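Exam revision sheet. Question 4 asks you to relate a sequence to its structure. Input first:
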Amino acid sequence: MSYPHLTPDAIIIFLRRKIRYISTPLLYAALLMYYAFIRKETPAWAKRIVMGALVYLVSPIDAIPDLSPIIGYTDDLGVLTYGLVMIAAYINEEVRSSSRSTLNAWIGHADESQLSKIDRLL
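Answer key, structure tokens:
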């Protein structure tokens, strides 16, 4: 099944619309995946992992429905975390910096302790 309208940029737009419901670590993880995806050095197999994880995030079909603001996104964070671990070799300092800059532009100053929990996985 093909979803031509589902691009990394469309997913970023989705995240911006849902920002008040999504936790800082989830947003940071999604941004890390996005910036890793747009790197030229990231191979196709890693980009497929990124797209799979990001599509799961925006999908209305979830293991735990996203109706609950906190609990509903725990499975999404798990899927994104698994994807991040799989593509960790393609998340460099530039990807981290771009992700943090975008996150800070969207929500203001992010809690460093929350971001470092994600960074420690990589």
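Marking note for examiners. The helical segments are 8-17, 24-38, 44-58, 74-86, 93-107, 112-121.
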